[in-house]
Design brief:
By secondary structure, this protein is α/β, with parallel strands linked by helices. Helix content is 39%, strand content 23%. A 6-stranded mixed sheet has the order 1-5-4-2-3-6, with helices on both faces. The protein has a 5-stranded mixed sheet with strand order 8-7-9-10-11, sandwiched between helices. The chain starts with 8 loop residues before the first strand and ends with a helix. 53% of the residues are buried.
Length: 447
């Protein structure tokens, strides 16, 4: 089966991701990234097994390993970026997937996650026999300390820590029993924030909640914020590259809204470009343009956002799922950096609830149609032809703009699906448009 998807490798532990598979992936990583590879893992029960196997594979082709232990993905990326002797990195994680899953994320020597082209090369190696090194050239395993502290130091240096400390904030934080248990409490202590934690014990088999920080999974956090009178609530996913926020009133904040709030805050002092996928809400573009910035759209996928930030020397970027990129710190999604910067934003620009109240609200409907890979191009061309006369964006599928909303129609890169997104200030209209395009696609595919 094909394990490589839009962001690394994921599958069920010991079914899709067996030690044999991890061994082969390790050999491919060793050949691809060279002499010295940094390794970290999340809190899943299967991570130790996969760490042993992938480590054996990396060392078997002559590459050394610097094992950082349990760390969030962006902390591993920070370590790779800051150490010239490190030629690549691997994080054992399945991000927001359920606890029976696991996976691998691959990091280049600059600390940036692997592109699809990089992953294609790794995947090619995984399907061939890889010659191992002779016994005297086998790689060595080293254990490094201090990576978490250095990562937190970098975050603190990139926010107004004195202003945050002076505000004496209280924050409720849900750590999803993941790798952020190692770093986020440390960060909040450094910033003088009173932290009330949920799911703060790293345990993979029985997490306190599903690691995807959706509203239905954060009921306890919302209640805790209201009951304690906290200034803010926040929740990470399991590997710590995303953060979702809760207002002081206990209201869940969609990732698009927090992205818009943060873009506006950053553009006050740093005019420039903001990068986001074509699937992001119109509210992001509205806020960026009204703040004197310029939005540049990318295909869906965090590595596409990161690449575009680099190419455009952008001041900020992010996705609607709570992933934010602060290039002054490092060019990757970073949940802890997002939390620290939002604390600064709340201190200097006011409570999150008040900032959101000043934004227009959009309604998004997400749907999909089963579509064979062989017919995706044909269906996309049909939609593009049908959009003649409208403003369109074709960076990923086709996004069709109307006077009162937009529709995004894009083929899935990992499944035999065609995705339909519809947004409008009118919830009924957004639903009506989504239904119409789903029906149109269904009719077309039945021909």
């Amino acid at each position: 089966m094909t394990l490589f998807g839009i962001n690394g490798v994921r599958g069920t532990a010991n079914r899709d991701l067996t030690p044999d598979v991890a061994l082969q992936i390790g050999k491919a990583v060793g050949l691809t990234y060279g002499k010295r590879v940094a390794l970290a893992m999340d809190a899943r029960d299967s991570s130790e097994m996969l760490r042993s196997a992938v480590s054996a594979g990396i060392m078997s082709v002559g590459s050394d390993i610097v094992d950082l232990g349990m760390l969030p993905t962006p902390a591993l990326q920070h370590y790779v970026m800051r150490h010239d002797d490190i030629t690549g990195g691997v994080v054992i994680t399945a991000s927001h997937n359920p606890p029976e899953h696991n996976g691998f994320k691959f990091i280049g020597p600059d600390g940036v996650e692997a592109t699809r082209e990089d992953e294609a090369a790794l995947e090619d190696f995984c399907s061939v026999e890889i010659k191992t090194a002779s016994w005297e050239d086998i790689g060595e395993l080293y254990h490094a300390t201090g990576a978490a502290e250095a990562y937190v130091d970098s975050i603190v240096s990139n926010v107004d820590a004195d202003a945050i400390r002076a505000a004496r904030l209280t924050v409720c934080i849900d750590l999803a029993n993941g790798a952020t248990c190692v770093t986020t409490p440390m960060l909040l202590k450094r910033l003088g924030v009173r932290a009330l934690t949920i799911d703060a014990d790293p345990q993979g088999e029985t997490p306190g909640r599903t690691s995807e920080p959706t509203e239905e999974n954060l009921t306890l956090l919302k209640a805790m914020v209201r009951q304690t009178g906290a200034d803010l609530g926040a929740a990470h996913d399991a590997d710590g590259d995303r953060t979702i926020f809760i207002t002081s009133e206990g209201e869940y904040v969609e990732g698009d809204l927090s992205l818009a709030i943060m873009a506006r805050y950053i553009l006050k002092d740093h005019h420039g470009k903001v990068i986001t996928p074509v699937s992001s809400s119109q509210i992001v573009e509205d806020v960026v343009e009204s703040s004197g910035g310029l939005v540049k759209y990318t295909p869906v996928g965090s590595h596409m956002v990161v690449k575009k930030i680099e190419e455009n020397h952008a001041v900020f970027g992010g996705e609607e799922n709570g992933g934010m990129v602060f290039p002054e710190h490092q060019n990757c999604r970073d949940g802890a950096m997002a939390l620290a910067k939002m604390l600064e934003c709340v201190v200097k620009a006011g409570p999150l609830s008040e900032q959101i109240a000043g934004l227009e609200r959009y309604h998004v409907v997400k749907d999909k149609v089963v579509c064979p890979d062989s017919r995706k191009r044909e269906l996309l061309d049909h939609f593009i032809d049908d959009a003649m006369g409208y403003r369109t964006e074709t960076v990923d599928g086709v996004k069709i703009y109307f006077d009162d909303g937009w529709v995004l129609l894009r083929p899935s890169t990992t499944e035999e699906l065609f995705r339909v997104y519809s947004e409008s200030k009118d919830a009924a209209l957004a639903q009506e448009r989504a239904d119409g395009y789903v029906e149109d696609a269904t009719r077309f595919l039945e021909q």
